[in-house]
Design brief:
16 helices; 4-stranded mixed β-sheet; about 15% strand; single chain; Aspartate Aminotransferase, domain 2; binds pyridoxal-5'-phosphate; Aspartate Aminotransferase, domain 1; about 475 residues; alpha/beta; 7-stranded mixed β-sheet
Length: about 475
């Protein structure tokens, strides 16, 4: 019922999503109740902490990733493949801090480099450090298209600057993106046809979205039609895409689509921007662009290039475009683009990024992750088969898609206000959060109800992780 699919075979993934629309299964109610009791008793410290936090932190948490159901788990330690909460429970960590932790928690080489820097030098000065150049040179050595690189505070910031730069360079106005893709939470890019909620839009003037448009994934004709439409209304500055597709490839892009996107960008004079916040240095040393064999004009980075430390973001690409970024004294020069950030490019993040990237190469981490991910996903396919649970299963290297809800695919089946689409959304969402809750109760934390990450440090325990999934899937009906 659920075989392992090829990560570039959109048609098969879409067809399997169609199966989920009709045959989605859920955790038995008795299992859900048991898990809720588990959290009440075994995670009482986290529960009390969550109630207290709600008094001083809006919503009780500070980031969506921590939005565990039924309440946020208070984590006090992360070591190797595991996370530990304040009640002393241990979890296999397949969240990887949302992506940055590719090697494993507290990985010795990275930790030691950071501690040495803090003890012997300085973690931040506000001035230039050689680590910034070293990181840029290192990235360029693996991604030749990154002729220049600029560190920033987050992926969100890097996406903001990418579209500003594209508009300044092309002198055009509109931005086209794939519907459902995530490019941070800035005013212009939070808009996300097919996924936009009122909460997302609250506080943002509608004018902000006037020049940002979404197209369905892998539909070359729809992309060209959008470009043609907006060419006469100020022109299209850029086509922005999560390189592997929305939500780290949950709705995957095909290789053909990448080639066509490049062709259309060249034909109409718009920039091709790859958001590689998740995929950069996770899919391989050359990122998604090496896999697709295409050359974006600009690439947005985050996560791994900061080695899991704060202020992890950056933008890189063609020298003629990147040279427009103002920094300090050149800010007044003609046709420069304003960008800043007090803590961007701090020595600690830059050195952590350098250390991680060197370690990835030295230990041949990607080859090991590809092999382990494949083994793990075949095991998951066997388990879903055994318990007859329909699922969409594939992986982009160590980004694992184990999707029993089909949530991200719903806009591709139901348009507008179709009541069946609304019903599907509610049903899939319930399935999505209960899946992560069940896995957490059984001792494994994932990134969200559809995708997760395998870190290098967990390769030795993937069979333990399979046992966790087995305990959860046996309770679906
Ligand atoms: C593809 C993509 N772009 C941008 C971002 C935003 O990055 P940040 O959370 O560092 O602002 C994310 C975050 O997960 C992402 O997955």
């Amino acid at each position: 019922m659920s075989r392992l699919l090829n990560e570039y075979d959109y048609d098969s993934v879409h067809a399997q999503a169609g199966v989920l629309m009709k045959k989605r299964k859920h955790l038995k109610r008795s299992a859900v109740e048991g898990y809720l009791r588990h959290f009440d008793t075994k995670c009482a410290g986290s529960k009390a902490e969550a109630e207290r936090a709600r008094e001083v932190l809006p919503g009780g948490i500070q980031h969506n990733l921590a939005n565990n159901h039924p309440f946020a788990l208070a984590i006090e330690k992360a070591e190797g493949p595991y996370l530990y909460d304040i009640d002393g429970n241990r979890y296999i960590d397949f969240l990887c801090a949302g992506g940055p932790i590719i090697l494993g928690n507290n990985y010795p080489a990275v930790r030691d480099a950071a501690v040495k820097l803090i003890m012997e030098k300085a973690s931040v000065t506000g001035l230039y450090s050689v680590y910034e150049r070293e990181l840029a040179e290192l990235i360029h050595s693996y991604m030749p298209g990154i002729e220049m690189f600029r560190m920033l505070g987050s992926g969100t910031e890097a996406d903001i600057i990418a579209i500003r730069l594209a508009r300044a360079y092309t002198k055009k106005k509109h931005i086209i993106r794939i519907m459902g893709g995530y490019h941070g939470w800035s005013d212009q890019l939070v808009y996300n046809e097919g996924k936009t909620t009122e909460e997302m839009l609250n506080g943002i003037p509608l004018d902000c979205f006037q020049n940002t448009h979404c197209v369905p994934v892998n539909d070359v004709e729809a992309l060209e039609a959008a470009v043609v439409k907006y060419e006469s209304e100020g022109g299209v500055a850029a086509f922005v895409m999560e390189a592997v597709g929305q939500d780290s490839g949950a709705v995957p892009t095909t290789k053909e689509y990448h080639r066509e996107a490049r062709r259309l960008c060249d034909k109409y004079g718009m920039l091709l921007i790859y958001d590689e916040v998740v995929t950069g240095f996770r899919l391989g040393m050359g990122g998604a662009q090496a896999i697709f064999g295409t050359h974006p004009d600009l690439t947005v980075f985050g996560k791994i290039i900061g080695g899991g430390f704060g202020c992890s973001g950056g933008i890189g690409g063609r020298k003629d475009i990147m040279s427009m970024l103002a920094a300090g004294v050149s800010a007044a020069a003609e046709n420069k683009v304003k960008v800043g950030g007090t803590l961007s490019a701090n020595p600690l993040t830059a050195l952590a990024g350098i250390t991680v990237i060197k370690e990835l190469e030295e230990k041949k981490v990607h080859a090991a992750l590809d092999k382990a991910s494949d083994h793990f996903m075949r095991g998951i396919a066997d388990i879903t088969e055994k318990y007859d649970v329909p699922a969409i299963l594939f992986h982009h290297s160590s980004i694992l898609h184990i999707d029993v809800s089909g949530l991200q695919h719903i806009p591709y089946f139901y348009k507008g206000n179709d009541p069946e689409g609304e019903r599907q959304l509610l049903d899939a969402y319930q399935n999505y959060i209960e899946f992560s809750m069940a896995l957490a109760a059984e001792g494994l934390i994932i990134a969200n109800g559809g995708k997760t990450y395998l870190p290098y440090g967990s390769i030795g325990i993937v069979d333990d992780a399979l046992d966790v999934y087995d305990r959860v899937f046996r309770q679906y009906e």
